[in-house]
Amino acid sequence: MQKKARKTRRQLLASKAAVQQQLINKANALTNPLETLDKFHEYITTDYTIKLSCIRAKDAQPECLSWIFDIMERNMKDMYEQSTWGWDAAEKQAELTEEMAWYLIASCNDKFLGFSHFRFDIDNGDVVLYCYELQLESEIRRKGLGRFMMSALESMAYQNQMLKIVLTVFKRNLSAIQFFYTLG
């Protein structure tokens, strides 16, 4: 009788990494990760009927990119300047338009109201949907849109077999900490 060869730790890790990369590649090969999630195409408040769309950052129209950079600077420049990272507009633009970046965009009547910048990635050995940004215009905050967008991201993560959503929040951004804490 022949003994079955046991895989070494290195072989097991290589096999796991290959499976993870296949999941990331499959998620990134999608045209629109939101497409089959019908309940996340529209969000209705008392004042707005908001459409959600999902596109690759590299496919975003110039007016969309311009608005994204503008809202990032309006909402986050001070936080970055107060951190050890500092604010570097060119570096932020490069991050926001990186090859693997996706946008979840909320708009109403051709007006941009919010966006999330995210990627399907590997973080600390896990396949994740990494939420780099969630930014809303001030007039739409505290109306449930941020929660709705995070639910859409969670559903996209689940649909694509990502283990979790990962994000980073500045310690000084108390409202964001409270928001994400309430989401669990």
Automatic annotation (TrEMBL):
Alphabetized GO MF terms: histone H2A acetyltransferase activity; histone H4 acetyltransferase activity; protein N-terminal-serine acetyltransferase activity
Location of the N-acetyltransferase domain: 55-184
Main location: cytoplasm
EC number from the UniProt entry: 2.3.1.257
Catalytic function, reaction form: N-terminal L-seryl-[histone H4] + acetyl-CoA = N-terminal N(alpha)-acetyl-L-seryl-[histone H4] + CoA + H(+); N-terminal L-seryl-[histone H2A] + acetyl-CoA = N-terminal N(alpha)-acetyl-L-seryl-[histone H2A] + CoA + H(+)
GO cellular component, one term: cytoplasm
UniProt key word Acyltransferase: yes
Localisation per UniProt entry: Cytoplasm; Nucleus
Gene3D superfamilies, sorted: 3.40.630.30
InterPro entries in the record: Acyl_CoA_acyltransferase (IPR016181), GNAT_dom (IPR000182), NAA40 (IPR039949)
Keywords: Acyltransferase, Cytoplasm, Nucleus, Transferase
Transmembrane segments: none
Family in the record: Belongs to the acetyltransferase family. NAA40 subfamily.
Protein name according to UniProt: N-alpha-acetyltransferase 40
Species of origin: Camponotus floridanus (Florida carpenter ant)
